[in-house]
Amino acid sequence: MATYRPDSNTLLADDSILEYVLETTVYPREHERLRELRLITQQHPKSFMGSSPDQMQFFSVLLKMIGASNTIEVGVFTGYSLLTTALALPAGGKVVAIDASREYYELGRPVIEKAGVAHKVDFREGDGVAELDKILSEDGGARAGTFDFAYADADKLQYAGYHERLLRLVRVGGAIAYDNTLWGGSVAMPRDKPGSSEYDRRVRDSFLEFNAAVAADDRVEACIVPIADGVTLCRRVK
Ligand SMILES: C[S@@+](CC[C@H](N)C(=O)[O-])C[C@H]1O[C@@H](n2cnc3c(N)ncnc32)[C@H](O)[C@@H]1O
């Protein structure tokens, strides 16, 4: 029996449930180039950073449901979520993709080109907060409120900073998704849980603060979707 864990940082209690989900709805409908990129990414020493295919199938459906055509992504790695997004956007759609490292993106770029969607990608190398600020000041601020969807999956300690900027960039009615907001379930466990590193504890603390702030933020309607490592989905309401 294949091991499915590496394909999703899932919080599901039993591997067989994830296996069922992947085999039933994810892999049979996964785009050939996404599969290729997933297999390339699995060879990378930091493959754990890649977004989960079950979560990305969810995003693909969501993007099409809301009719997204302009999106932003912070945290690209080898590009599995980026390719998912580019494939889900209509012909004239565009995704601004930000990552501090171009090196990871270069691994996935040939596959994105082969998929025929590279023209939809506007890749920007740099720090997430700094690049979002640049977009906000582009064209005299004309890009504010023009994005339909944003996905934040970069520096976990910067999510509050991403939130403030993404709320200005995404239109009212648009969606913002934050990855890893359950942080391995640690947000609901004691801080000194055996086996957790100092970094885990810092990220857990910052997610406790971030999740509480989003829950109380009247500019969004939000929910935590317990898929993969937890995704907070916000709909901008003002
Ligand atoms: C979890 S991975 C992203 C995974 C990606 N969404 C996917 O589908 O595979 C996080 C990425 O964030 C990038 N990153 C880390 N700190 C960053 C920062 N301060 N600004 C921008 N990108 C950052 C890393 O280089 C890494 O590629």
TrEMBL record:
GO MF, one example: S-adenosylmethionine-dependent methyltransferase activity
GO annotation terms (biological process): methylation
CDD domains: AdoMet_MTases (cd02440)
Recorded family membership: Belongs to the class I-like SAM-binding methyltransferase superfamily. Cation-dependent O-methyltransferase family.
Protein name: Caffeoyl-CoA O-methyltransferase
Source domain of life: Eukaryota
Keywords assigned by UniProt, alphabetized: Methyltransferase, S-adenosyl-L-methionine, Transferase
InterPro entries: Cation-dep_OMT (IPR050362), SAM-dependent_MTases_sf (IPR029063), SAM_O-MeTrfase (IPR002935)
Organism for this UniProt entry: Triticum urartu (Red wild einkorn)
